[in-house]
Amino acid sequence: MMLEGHGASLCQAIAQEMRVARELLEELAGVLVADERFVAEYIDQLQAFDLIVQHVDESAALLDRVAGGSGLGEALGQVRLNVMQERLRAALD
């Protein structure tokens, strides 16, 4: 399945919006990490920011690949987070 026209453009626009969200998350994480007491108390929870950023990046890259004409299987095969890749592949079954 290849997306054309508006479908591809929409996927690219969504991918860009996801990158904006990633930047906002990174800025928020930077503010929180600046407080040493907060970091000491919430280090495990702060690691979730990194995982969220990775998921957003992978999702945006996947949308870009699909919008660029990659087949779904090929595009999914390039997702670097195995758990995410498995969940997305299951959605195709």
Give a count of the beta strands, DSSP E runs of length 2 or more.
0
**Termini, distance in Å?**
15 Å
Main sheet characteristics? none
How would you classify the quaternary structure? Answer: single chain
Helix content: over 70%
Could you list the spans in which at least 5 consecutive residues all have pLDDT below 50? none
Number of helical stretches of at least 4 residues: 4
Mean pLDDT: 92
Structural class: mainly alpha
The tally of structural domains comes to 1
What overall form do the CA principal axes indicate?
elongated
Textual characterization of the structure:
There is one protein chain. This protein has 93 residues and is mainly α. The protein has one domain. Helices cover 84% and strands 0% of the residues. The chain has four helices and no strands. The chain has helices at 5-33, 36-67, 72-77, 82-92. The protein is elongated. The model has no long low-confidence stretch (mean pLDDT 92).
Provide a quick synopsis of the model.
The chain is mostly helical and 93 residues long. Helix content is 84%, strand content 0%.
Task: Output the keywords.
93 residues, 4 helices, elongated
Q: What secondary-structure arrangement, pairings included, does this model have?
A:
Layout: H1 5-33, H2 36-67, H3 72-77, H4 82-92
